[in-house]
Amino acid sequence: MRIGIYPGSFDPITLGHIDIIKRAGSICDKLIIAAAMNISKKPLFNIEERLEMIRESCNNLKNIEITTFNGLLADYCIKRNVNVIIRGLRPGLDFDNEYAVALINRRLAPEAETIFFPSDSELCFVSSSMVKEIASYGGDVTTFVPQFVKQKLSEKFSNLN
Fold it and tell me: What is the pTM of this model?
């Protein structure tokens, strides 16, 4: 059984993330979407809010599990018998860092192979950080995130202002 994991902060989940999830789900028997509780980042949304947005955004997809994890991805992969780590790549932005992380994960969890998915050309410039900045100024993020996420961003920023 091919068990994949797509880890990330998903703060918030974007249409780029969802594209990767759909494509990765087609090659995995089970795909774990794992929202990381990364202590080095200061997320806009708490972990429960991020999980809710992922669930709502992926509610029509099969063979996925939505969860959270803390600590090293490699340790989580070993614990869950994950054999495929899914990572998305945007042009010119991600490769060097993602390649280094893949090599470390291979050393720590040799049974988990990293597979890189190039981002869709229509979404390759989208990032959660960019979406948050646009939304914070009241900009339209309709083409970057699902409607449910757009609403959550609007609520979050109206509460902060």
Answer: 0.94
